[in-house]
Amino acid sequence: MKKYIIAIILCILFWGCVPVVDMGFTNNANYKISIYSNLIPPHDYSNPVVYPDTTLPYSKSPQMRDVEAGRSCVYSQTSATIEQRYAGYNTDTISIFVFSFDTLNSFGWDAVRNTYNVLQRYDISILDYNSLSDFPTFPPSEEMRNIKMWPPYGTYDENGHRVKP
Q1: SS3 annotation, the chain
Q2: What rounded mean pLDDT belongs to the chain?
Q3: Nearest CA to 4 among 12, 46, 120?
Q4: How many alpha carbons lie under 13 Å from residue 138 in its C-beta half-sphere?
Q5: For the chain, how big is the Rg over CA atoms in Å?
Q6: What is the pLDDT of residues 27-49, one digit of tens each?
């Protein structure tokens, strides 16, 4: 009986030591944003939008997450590595889309989708994601300047407002 109790205690201790890998996004803008990516659960491996396809889903996705100004959002916590999460899509690059929360609420998903009213799109590879010291951010941080994105790095100031040319 003691062996079983010890085994149960060891299992509980080891289970609690499984490393957790967080994935998230940081909003450094001074307004609320919404983000969308296939990396955000629930995963839809049967109907993925996979880079280089950068079209938006026909209907608003349950994967959309809202991020308050100046806050971070952890959208996934599992023991799965970044590589394992990407592997389900058979690609090394995933797109992360950033939208204005106010625009989505004012005009709706169809209008935003039809006009491709995206604040920022990151086409982020496994290597890009792993090279970051923290979560991806909007506006893009200096550390993100070499990640493929549209519009290009430098389009927004530190508050998330477009820079005048």
Answers
A1: CHHHHHHHHHHHHHHCCCCCEEEEEEECCCCCEEEEECCCCCCCCCCCCCCCCCCCCCCCCCCCEEECCCCEEEEEEECCCHHHHHHCCCCCEEEEEEEEHHHHHHHHHHHHHHHCCCCEEEEEEHHHHHHCCCCCEECCCHHHCCCEEECCCCCECCCCCECCC
A2: 85
A3: 12
A4: 35
A5: 19
A6: 999 999 999 988 877 766 666 66
- For 123-150, what is each residue's pLDDT tens digit? 999 999 999 999 999 999 999 999 999 9
CA pair distance 3, 20, nearest whole angstrom: 29
The pTM for the full model equals: 0.84
Strand partners, 66: 34
**pLDDT of 125:** 93
